[in-house]
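Supplementary notes (optional reading)

For those who missed the lab, this is the record we used. Protein: DUF1146 domain-containing protein. Length: 66 residues.
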Amino acid sequence: MSYQVLKLIVYVFSVLSAMYGLSCFHYEKYILKGKLKQFYCLYIIVSLSLGYLLASFILDFVTIHF
């Protein structure tokens, strides 16, 4: 399997696991009325950021040991 395909799989898995991890918090208390679009935009940005950091860590950790 190509390294690029492996990277893509790791990035997708990391972003999905970040979204799953962030879903355990109750954000309803903190969302202002009428600001749901902004919340979803922030949620996606935070999920992508955490997923990127996790995937980078995993890929660096694997390449160091091989």
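If you only remember one thing from this example: Residues 3-65 form one domain.
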